[in-house]
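Lab meeting, action items carried over

1. Structure of the two-component assembly. Owner: GW. Status: complete.
Input record:
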Amino acid sequence: MAATDRKEGLGGILLAALALPGLTPYTAAAENAPEHAVLAFKELYYHDYQSGLQRITVNAPSLSLSLPMGTAWGVESSVVTDSVSGASPRYYTTKSGASHMDDLRTAGDVKLTHYRARSAYSVGLSYSTEHDYTSRAVSLDGRWASDDNNTTFNAGVGYADDSIDTENGAADNESRRTWQGIVGVTRVLTATDIVQLQAGYSSGSGYYSDPYKLFDNRPDSRQQETALLRWNHHFKGLRASLRSSYRYYHDSFGIRAHSLGEEWVQPVGNSLAWTSALRYDTQSAADFYVDPPASGSFPTLPDGAYSTLDQRMAAFGSLTFGQKLAWQASPHWNFDIKGEYSVQRAGLRFIGNGSPGLDTFYWYAVQLGIAYRF
Amino acid sequence: MPDTRDSLEAEFGVMACRAQIRIWGLDDAAAQDAIAAGIAEARRIEYKYSRYRSDSIVSRINAAAGSGARIEVDEETAGLLDFAAQLHVQSEGRFDISSGVLRRVWNFREPRLPAAGEIAALLPLVGWQQVQWLRPHIALPRAGMELDFGGFGKEYAADRVATVLQDAGARGGYVNLGGDIRVLGPDAEGQPWRFGIQHPRRAEEVIAVLALAQGALATSGDYERYFEIDGRRYCHLLDPRSGWPVQDYQSISVLAPLCLVAGALSSIAMLSGAQAPAFLQSQHAAFLAVDQAGRLQHQGV
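Predicted assembly:
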């Protein structure tokens, strides 16, 4: 037990480290142990509760009522806009933990963010490579909040330069260049309503075909437009929250898609929360989508004509149902069970006919969660 | 006129980890230069002490193992070797920069326990006490022995990057290299930064938040690389004396004035098993520990 019997006032290991050159620019730093360490158990509990309901909990009454308006807006906006990080008031700045290996071994990226009182600006550069794919991208983002913090605007542009070189020879040193832009606004309408509108546009040219699919020959440019509207409403009397979203998508391949989503989060008692979700998607086929022939041979296409058999380019509709029950049994134990069921078929398309050759596609998922907290 | 109270943040990858620098107190151009110099310093240390580069000082020392040749090292490396020697003594042999050879039988990509004979065969190659270190010369007496600075390289780099940033004029901010954090000073309002401590069993969550205006925070845990067999977790933190993983704590976070110290203390505490709290108390360190049952222990925070 020699190690624990030592009696150095500063700790022997600290003394040993101080002998190293170049570590302490401020002499004061050597003597003062951190003074401002505060253990925030309260926020730990806050996080607990949030996690049990998977990112929706911020709508739960105990939380939204306990937060001042400005902060509530911040928390909400970071939840509803996936692209916003950093600037909104996260409740911790960065994390300490044992290191995780970075999966993108061959990737390098740098993102610089400049924070001002009511705005933040980022510039990002990235490079990544897989065995048949290399991507280089640059992005610029900005976000600005109004003086009362109730409205935030965001805008960003990005440029990506990808190259595709497959081993099967289908794509030989092909490339693709894409410009993207996004603008959005998030606004706190009332103490119980938050809305967000985002619009995006991208324009690319180059290689779009799937090099691993037969009969896949797509145009060499693609323009995409998206619009997204979200609305979160909290019902004080019911203590429940309704999250609604609508997404519109259109591209120059001829695909037009609409998605509608509703989620109802209902706390039951003090420890249960029931979430019901319903989502409907409908889309038209790409102009050059070819239904797989039910029998016989593949239709003869003129030389050089565009074609694809990719199911994602077909016309269809889909319905997804979800239920989730989360139970906070005690401050230590959390249980949740979640089920989702989805059906995707040509006949579910809202307007017009779906692609006849498309097989109905179902999926379901059940997820069980048990968590112990301390 | 640029407001030097604005802060600038950079994220980048180094030493196979995500890293982050955030500083204030400089105008934009100077802040960018400072961050570039900080990133360059981290990369310099990564290259200099990498086991994977045949021209690194570590590779040269290891390549000479058992040959009788003594390698002369530079001042910086000598300082780190002295520090490693101190850690070995004060940890009663638990912290040993020659223990990396155990990786040959502990491969955490597949759940497989090494046979007793496999570990026994490697243990003679482990042991700082065998290393011939007489500043500025070092020699590893047995062929197959290896030194590895991975046990404190990242923490040392965090401190060095902080020094570079402060020398460039940064007045506050922090450096986070894969979870090892060194604080340069509070934010422009004089408020501490808030650091989440990762939940040892749920990667997306934090178990506590610490507010720090200066000093350093490092966490060592059994969740970085591990496998489980029959409900027992075998992690990458190996006791160099037995060759087996430690199993008493899920994670230990330590606060210290330097990241190098916080990192060394958290590693040694993990390797000290049930004696971790006593060891940390003897080193006058503030800590937060999560034991195998998930219970929180803390002192000074």
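2. GW to write a short summary for the group page. Key points so far: Chain B has a mean pLDDT of 89. The CA atoms of residues 222 and 235 of chain B lie 5 Å apart.
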